[in-house]
Predict the 3D structure of the following.
Amino acid sequence: MTEFTEVVRNRRMTRAFAPEPLDHGQLDRLVDLAGRAPSAGKSQGWHLVALEGDETARYWDVALPRERRATFRWSHLLDAPVVLLAFADPHAYVERYAQDDKSSTGLGAGVEAWPAPYWTIDASMAVMTLLLAAEDEGLGALLFAVFRSEEEIRASLGVPERMVTIGAVALGRPHPEPAGRGRSASRPRRTPAEIVHRGGW
């Protein structure tokens, strides 16, 4: 329990990376652990597009064109040797819940039958597990939104239309000179008493 507590407490969003590649098999180990996150009906409808080494430019050249980089605060973010694009597939859940052992739920009728988008929930839990696994291996990771040019990025990577974009993860060894903390880091963390409503709201 102590080791897990340390992993959770030490995990931070890394914004500066050393450009050296990951060790052989390291990405597969992280993804294998992430694949053990909860999955409704074991639908496992999440996917990663992995850009490694020089391939990461396929993302950055669209998301952060060269003319905007001179004023970009986190210049060593672009040195991350891996950029992962995470996606969720709603139809994997509809198809799974249309199968005999789940059909009585009615969730196989279509995406609109679901009271909550479990494809997004499950993919998010898998990504969180990946972030923790990266911390456990001594790597840095940053989860960030695909704010700009999402459609262009998806098209350039051949992402099927049905996939829901979860976000991007930069992954690698932290730069020896940390880039500092994001603007939100100074906000106080809520206490358990502020989060838990015992016995009702």
Remarks:
- The chain has eight helices and four strands.
